[in-house]
Amino acid sequence: MSAPEAKRPKLADKANVLMVGTGEYTTGYVGGTAADSDKGAGVVALTMFDLRRRGKVDRVGMCGVNGKKFPGIRNHMQKNIGDVYNNMDLTCDTFPSDETVDPKAYLDAVSTFQAGDVAIIFTPDDTHYDITMACIEKGLHVMVTKPIVQTLEHHTNLIKAAKEKNVLVSMEVHKRWDPFYADARDRARSQFGNFQYMYAYMSQPKHQLETFKAWAGKSSDISFYLNSHHIDFSEWTLEGIARPIRVTGTSSTGVAHSKGMKTEDSITLTVQWENLNDKSLGCAVYTSSWVAPKGDVHSQQRFFYMGTNGEINVDQAHRGMTVAQDGKPFASVNPLFMKYTPTNGMFSGQGSYGVKSFECFVDACRAVNAGEKTVQDYDDGSLATVGTTVQGTAILEAGRLSLDADGRPMDIVYGEDGHTPVGIKPHEF
Question: Which residues contact 130 (CB under 8 A, 6 or more apart)?
């Protein structure tokens, strides 16, 4: 007889959170120092510590592969969080031990949590599936950084497993909480008519190749890493309006190869979308790069969207705020994403969309645990749930297959509902 599942906590109870991954987005710690980006203090850990301060989170755990990094991570978090903000309790259970290197440490970490707890996964793309499955099997609610997985097969398996365990599984896409992107989405859906054209560009400076050298070109690429942002925006925006039917991938090379890295510098995915009401066609072009020169922002991010009745431009990188300070380069800053500057000694970034993304997920998990909401309630677009993000995975996988086939277009195959992708096949000319 199998052991009974642990009783789910009530909403009044605080969430216990396991963070899987110890890198730039979780802690801001890269290569023994603060990341040379706009996330030197990290995002995930800082947010969890603040949620604990505000009474929403109790136990916090952190799991990596190399436990020998944890002394440096603790010192980094003390310097960049504990010494900067008042009343921050940085207590955190860490896995594996400080003397151990263990790629499967997440299994031990997960075993110390119970059903209804929360896992937040920020690890290399090719590890998402196995870690997420282990968390689901334990009955944990799971948030996974984009892309949630790299293949349709894995995505379908996660949907099935999450349904069987009745847990909330979602992809972390903080742009859904960016007021600029949210308003653009609402305008496109309510005022712009059928989809016609979109161009999206996102880049990071070439020193990021060093940050990601452990996996860049080996287990993932710049399209999975960056194009996933605007592809999710399209899927979120065009839900019930249009569907992707064909993907063609092209690339540029040279810089990464000169560093001994077998990966593309930039990847462009051209996606044919089909409007559902009249079968008319639209086209979207998604370009991502990690060989940009270092400029006034860490990441260039912008898009142009056109429907039959209107168009909109969004420059996410430049929000009209620039900073010049002795000893630091001129910068365009975006406190709408993360406001690190304290107010009277306190962390005051709760309104930033980088924080909201995690807080809304934790709140959703607590509501499900309390019986106030069902897992299915969040398929309404309020979260990027595993069941509502399948088209994005199909686009990204088809793009990789196209690149590997020397740019041959790939068709997305749909099931009986005409909405959910079930396969990818080479386009027949």
Answer: none
**Pairing, β 266-275 against β 141-145:** unpaired
pLDDT of residue 161: 98
pLDDT reading at 185 higher than 70: yes
Query: What is the reported pTM?
Result: 0.93
Q: Are 21 and 29 in contact (CB under 8 A)?
A: no
Exposed / middle / buried, residue 406 (Cβ in 10 Å: 0-12, 13-18, 19+) = exposed
Dist CA 330 CA 297 (whole Å): 9
